[in-house]
Amino acid sequence: MFQPMYPxxxxxxxxxxxxxxxxxxxxRPAPQISVSTxxxxxxxxxxxxxxxxxxxxxxxxxxxxxxxxxxxSMLRDQHRR
Length: 81
Prior knowledge:
Elements: H1 23-26, H2 37-80
C-alpha cells in the first residue's frame, strides 16, 4: 500500500549530463530596471504639486489663527468699555 508506484516505461529515463561552464557565463546578469523619463517627470511634478498644496494649507491655517486671535482681542476690548 505504501510502496511507490512507478509508471511502466519501455525506455530508461535519460541520464543527466552536467557540463561545467566558466564563471563568466555561469553568472546571471543583474536585472535591468528601465524607467522612462516621463514617469520620473510625473513623480517629480506630483511631489512639487503636493508640497505646494501642503504649504498653502499651512499658510492658510496660520493666517486664520492670527485673524482669530486679533478678532478675539478686539472683541474683548469692546466688552470692557
